[in-house]
């Protein structure tokens, strides 16, 4: 008896027609209110915050030493390759959804789903990380005013127990507690959620004010801190490599690369600009401009701040939770510590705002394509014209995780999902050039084959240098995403109606 082989199911490779994106844009209920500089402000607001105010301490203290500046250069270069590719895609497909939408129109549905799924790590876990950092700076502000709240109300359960044990070992009397929650992190996320539900214009206006203050203070840190640099703190600029018990190398070249993988989290905000294309007044021109402008501005500021901090104090003395404020405190500049701490709170708030904003817009794009339930993720509020249900859902998840989880458990997951998404985008824009050479491109990535290849290699290399436990968690997350795709998204995709 002759056995016929079943045809291979190629539906997972189906692509959303480019014409469908134009139709989606015309039907969009979102208000177009964002200008070129409003978009740039959103990009700067997303980038500056966690990296400068938090991750500089961790990356320099544990991994790179004074060579942290080189880590920022390496991460910035990898981001630049991706940004150039992002800019071309954003000019062609000015729709909400970011890397997800770009991949759906070029590579195929399964890759688009995986990218969208992993962008959840970028935006939601990124917002979680920043919320925990915000709480740390808020606690420092309270201490400046002589207020010492209970440990169990300012930290997650694990961190609270660790702090209590250290204080008891130092001779302090700390009452026992059976429960701990990071209350400030929980509450600030709820405040940001309320702002986002109210509307994009209100959110953008709030963010513009915060960004101006934040950039001014960052420049203040660079200028004032430069007068307190001791160049001996930069010697040796690249510390000798040290191998820990797990076999991980700290310092040296590998340490610099690992630090670059960690501080990559500090750059991920630039792609949040592309998620706002549906609300931009002139998306084809303004989105590419805002992506590149925000990335260039932030890269320069990061490099300068890292040089100032490692020059002000020995890198081993950098505080892990509030490195910028503590560096100035060590120099006796108490008045500056007040300014920096308040600015950090504003800066981290703006990062949360943009990350949570970007997440809801990615959900919106995926729901419009049928890959997520539309009644939850694409429900637009009749008055505020915002995806209010998904905004509230994102807010509750971020608030809960931030209140109960240590910062080091979530920060690296942000980078892993983003690095893969960026590598995919570099490949996708090249593929689209080959498939659709005559497509209108208001912005064209220069030397695309070279830029795309370098972008793929750089982002995958940084991803490879993440810690082993992070990579394992990432694989588990991707596996869960594939289960959701094959059990729900694939059969509910709107492309089924076109097949």
TrEMBL record:
Question: What species is given as this protein's source?
Answer: Spirosoma endbachense
MF GO annotations: amino acid transmembrane transporter activity
Report the superkingdom from the record.
Bacteria
Please tell me one Gene Ontology term that the record gives under cellular component.
membrane
Q: Could you confirm whether the keyword Transferase appears in this record?
A: no
Q: How does it sit in the membrane?
A: Multi-pass membrane protein
Broad class of where this protein is predominantly found: membrane
Is Nucleotide-binding one of the keywords?
Answer: no
Q: Which residues form the signal peptide?
A: none
The protein in question is named Amino acid permease
Compartments, as annotated in UniProt: Membrane
- What residue ranges are annotated as transmembrane? 37-61, 67-87, 99-120, 177-197, 209-229, 249-268, 289-315, 335-358, 390-407, 413-434, 446-464, 470-488
> Keywords of this protein's UniProt record, alphabetized?
Membrane, Transmembrane, Transmembrane helix, Transport
One Pfam entry name: AA_permease_2
InterPro entries on file: AA/rel_permease1
């Amino acid at each position: 008896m002759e056995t016929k082989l079943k045809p291979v199911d190629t539906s997972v490779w189906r692509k959303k027609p480019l014409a469908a994106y134009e139709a989606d844009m015309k039907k969009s209920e979102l208000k177009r209110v964002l200008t070129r500089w409003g978009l740039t402000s959103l990009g700067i607001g997303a980038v500056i915050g966690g990296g400068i105010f938090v991750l500089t301490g961790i990356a320099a203290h544990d991994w790179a030493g004074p060579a942290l500046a080189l880590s920022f250069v390496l991460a910035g270069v990898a981001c630049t390759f991706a940004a150039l590719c992002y800019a071309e895609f954003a000019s062609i497909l000015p729709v909400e959804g970011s890397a997800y939408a770009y991949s759906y129109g070029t590579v195929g549905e399964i890759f688009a789903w995986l990218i969208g799924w992993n962008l959840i790590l970028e935006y939601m876990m990124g917002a979680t990380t920043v919320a925990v950092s915000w709480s740390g700076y808020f606690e420092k502000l309270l201490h400046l005013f002589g207020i010492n709240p209970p440990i169990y109300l300012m930290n997650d359960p694990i961190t609270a127990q660790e702090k209590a044990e250290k204080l008891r070992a130092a001779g302090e009397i700390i009452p026992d507690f059976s429960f701990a929650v990071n209350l400030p992190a929980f509450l600030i996320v709820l405040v940001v959620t309320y702002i986002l539900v109210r509307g994009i214009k209100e959110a953008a206006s709030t963010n513009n004010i915060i960004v101006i203050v934040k950039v001014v203070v960052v420049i203040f840190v660079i200028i004032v801190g430069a007068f307190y640099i001791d160049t001996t703190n930069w010697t040796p600029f690249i510390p000798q490599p040290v191998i820990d018990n797990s076999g991980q190398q700290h310092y040296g070249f590998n340490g610099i690369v690992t630090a670059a993988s960690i501080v990559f989290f500090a750059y991920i905000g630039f792609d949040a600009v592309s998620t706002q294309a549906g609300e931009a007044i002139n998306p084809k021109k303004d989105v590419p401009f805002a992506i590149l402008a925000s990335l260039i501005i932030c890269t320069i500021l990061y490099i300068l701040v890292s040089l100032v901090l490692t020059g002000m104090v020995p890198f081993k003395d950098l505080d892990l939770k509030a490195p910028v404020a503590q560096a100035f405190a060590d120099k006796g500049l108490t008045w500056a510590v007040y300014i920096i701490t308040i600015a950090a709170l504003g800066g981290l708030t703006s990062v949360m705002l943009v990350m949570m904003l970007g997440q809801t817009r990615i959900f919106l794009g995926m729901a419009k394509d049928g890959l997520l339930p539309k009644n939850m993720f694409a429900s637009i509020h009749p008055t505020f014209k915002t995806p209010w249900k998904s905004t509230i859902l994102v807010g509750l998840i971020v608030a809960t995780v931030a209140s109960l989880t240590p910062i080091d458990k979530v920060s690296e997951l942000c980078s892993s999902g983003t690095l893969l998404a960026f590598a995919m985008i570099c490949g996708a824009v090249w593929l689209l050039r080959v498939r659709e050479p005559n497509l209108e491109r208001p912005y064209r990535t220069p030397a695309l084959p070279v830029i795309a290849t370098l972008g793929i290699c750089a982002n995958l290399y940084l991803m490879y240098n993440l810690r082993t436990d992070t990579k394992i968690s990432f694989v588990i997350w991707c596996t869960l995403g594939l289960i959701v795709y094959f059990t729900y998204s694939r059969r509910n995709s709107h492309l089924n109606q076109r097949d």
